Predict the 3D structure of the following.
Amino acid sequence: AQGQPDNDQLRRGLLDELINRELLAQEAERRGLLKSAEAQAQIELARQNALVNLAVEDIVRASPVKDETARAEYEKIKTQRGAREYRARHILVENEAAAKQIIEKLGKGEKFEELAKESKDTGTRERGGDLDWPTPTNFVKPFSDAMIKLEKGKFTEAPVQTQFGWHVIRLDDSRSTQFPPFDQVKQQLVNGLQQQEIQRVLGELRAKAKIEAQ
């Protein structure tokens, strides 16, 4: 077959690698390297890693994620995110007085994007305060409550206080929440549910175990 030489070459390469590894392992034993504390620590770590992988595989195998479970998780996430998402901008400042000054400047026609350069939010100030398309659940409640009340193109007429400081918010647009099709995210959902099961088992083990810090 056309691919046969490549397959033979691959097998020979793998065999050579296994032989080399075994020869080096034997040489390490001959030199007495296994007696060192460092070697014992590395061997113990490798043993733990192998056992961890086996345990995780067994937990996942014992509790397979059914399609209906993944579908239910998908619907739950959709419900949590809400029916609408909002394209908003914000400017975050230290105090109410500074926020009021920004609102006053906006009222006089100054550009929001320029004023956003004064924002404490380093992640958005260079983008004119743009927050992209999150859903209200991505924000703390005082922020989301103020945002969803705004009309398109309008900004908050009073500063909005959160634990992060004082915000001036502008709503650029809103739309129905965009969800990827279930089949497109199914594997991610399955992976997430498997991680939840692993964490559940770990929680039970930690509750029963006596762990002493070395």
